[in-house]
Design brief:
The chain has 202 residues and is mainly alpha-helical. The chain is built from eight helices and no strands.
Length: 202
């Protein structure tokens, strides 16, 4: 919901680091490093090392923000880089809740995990295909001057909200069942929000 508003301030905050410290590093290397750290966060959650998992999750999100900034500042943007970024991010969004569910190991948590991952599946279809339609109609990222490879149609649950929810999962692992269910509900609301927008504009 707040991603587009915060994208420019985030870019300004990360630009000095991207320009001075990360110039020799290819953005795809940052993307892959972020993914590896995110997978370690999922493993740490599975092993109930929740504080370590939280620190790794925050580091994953920081690097995920840096790869695009490095690519833009040093003119290393590629379609493959944008594709890998989305694909690897999505794998982390699946792996971390799964690690938490394996740690809890209760039927109720597994049920809520299924609801959460199912909502992610619908959400991915809702934004990716809508983004493809907007790009096709010349209303995509370039036309809107967005700082992304493809336009990301808005919704109630976006990147920032996902970061917050996952941090809550790790801070309150005893409550992940209800937290999974709440996030799943809000993600479904996001899907309906986008569908309503598409009916009126596509």
């Amino acid at each position: 919901m707040l991603d587009k508003i915060l994208r420019s301030p985030k870019e300004q905050m990360l630009s000095p680091v991207a320009y001075r410290l990360l110039r020799p590093i290819h953005p795809t290397s940052i993307t892959i490093t972020a993914w590896a750290i995110g997978m370690f966060a999922a493993i740490a959650a599975w092993q109930q090392a929740y504080l370590l998992a939280l620190l790794l999750w925050v580091l994953n999100r920081l690097l995920d923000g840096l790869d695009g900034t490095v690519a833009r500042i040093h003119q290393k943007q590629t379609d493959l880089g944008g594709y890998l970024d989305v694909l690897l991010d999505t794998s982390i969004y699946c792996a971390l809740p799964l690690g938490l569910a394996l740690a809890a190991n209760t039927p109720a948590v597994y049920l809520n995990l299924a609801l959460l991952l199912g909502s992610f599946y619908l959400n991915t279809a809702s934004w990716m295909y809508l983004a493809a339609l907007l790009e096709k109609r010349q209303h995509g990222a370039n036309a809107q001057q967005e700082l992304t490879t493809v336009t990301m149609p808005g919704g109630l649950i976006e990147g920032l909200e996902t970061m917050i929810f996952f941090a809550l999962f790790l801070l309150f692992p005893a409550s992940i069942g209800p937290l999974f269910a709440i996030m799943a509900l809000l993600v479904v609301v996001t899907v309906i929000w986008r569908l309503s927008w598409a009916i009126r504009h596509v």
